[in-house]
Design brief:
Largest sheet: 7 strands, mixed
Oligomer: single chain
Strand order of the largest sheet: 7-6-12-13-14-11-15
Number of helices: 12
CATH topology of the largest domain: Rossmann fold
Number of domains: 3
CATH class of the largest domain: Alpha Beta
Radius of gyration: 22 Å
Bound molecules: flavin-adenine dinucleotide, uridine-5'-diphosphate
Structural class: alpha/beta
CATH superfamily of the largest domain: NAD(P)-binding Rossmann-like Domain
Distance between the termini: 27 Å
Length: 373
Amino acid sequence: MKRNELILKKYDYLIVGSGLFGAVFARQATDRGKRCLVIEKRNHIGGNLYCSNINGINVHVYGAHIFHTSNRTVWEYVNKYVEFNRFTNSPIANYKGEIYNLPFNMNTFSRMWGVITPEEAKKKIAEQRAAITHEPQNLEEQAISLVGYDIYAKLIKGYTEKQWGRDCKELPPFIIKRLPVRYTYDNNYFNDLYQGIPIGGYNVLVEALLEGCDVELGVDFNQHREKYENMADKVVYTGTIDSYYGYRFGKLEYRSLRFETEVLDIDNYQGVAVVNYTDRETPYTRIIEHKHFEFGTQPTTVITREYPADWQEGMEPYYPVNDGRNNQLYQKYAELAANEPKTIFGGRLAEYKYYDMDKVVESALAKSEQELG
Ligand code: FAD
Ligand code: UDP
């Protein structure tokens, strides 16, 4: 090795992206005495978990983030770095002024049909799903078969078509199976054993995970590849996989979002952290009132309207579109990735998976274990 190569190559790992995957990998590697450089194209760390602070309120800049998991190892892992509060997500749906509890449970069924007992609710849903006799092939069939036609029409169809920019018949069934359906009066949006929001916000968690690493902000790896690759023995890449390969097989599709944030001179705007607007006409999908994630008592409040958007280059790619065409294209990139000797791919963008945070932590722990032993 030449002398200047020796000077440049001062890290064991170059980690591209300071989101949860990159940060967990960095922590695991640093704890084993490895030197890590994290580069991040945004001007802050944390990826989509990042919070800004307005008037003492932690604002979820990239949309509502609630940590939930049934994996005890993951829960104990994140709790080592930050304490979590007792927040339980219980969003409500607003359909043209009618208010329903989510996820789909006895409160929803009762409000929709006037039913009182689980038996009455099951009977109603059985009647409404009678038309679906086969294994659901798309999101519409899956939704009707789970909760019947009325709930599909008022609480799912409009919201989903706004969110994904396509007809429910063209979307995969698994997206709607993320939501629990319960025949109990229980408004907890998740079934998981553990749930909460980090006390002090997500930045506390990410800062602790990145402690002891070097971090450079405002650097796009794909634009300065050679320089940064030469600085480390191995690369952990958490950006979009198609951009890593210069889109050589074509572009994967993503859904994007636009957030509009407002500070209001009142103490309580909507009485709950998340309200979904489930009609087709309201252009946003949800309004978040951030203070309620941490039971805030500040005199003012901050709300954010979340507008779905088609992804175009230059925008943030938030959601992979895991339909048949995109999954096939992803497989082609994944085959190349599997044969990369120096690069480890991980996270929502590099694995092209609709991962929640706990799954990202799980995957980063597994991959770092495999790599570092
Ligand atoms: P990211 O957070 O996207 O991090 C990747 C990082 O890499 C980014 O900071 C990006 O800027 C950077 N990067 C990309 N390319 C490059 C490059 N070329 N050079 C340098 N840097 C680069 N999960 C939950 O568990 N609960 C929730 O309530 C929840 N709500 C969500 C709400 C919304 C609106 C969205 C979009 C997601 C939500 N999630 C939720 C999912 C959660 O955001 C992800 O699981 C998690 O953030 C993924 O972490 P990551 O590290 O894989 O990706
Ligand atoms: N969904 C819906 N109505 C709602 C909430 C969710 O139809 O009021 C559907 C929608 O298709 C969404 C999916 O359920 O994409 C998963 O919802 P989740 O809240 O998990 O979405 P995320 O928080 O990941 O955006």
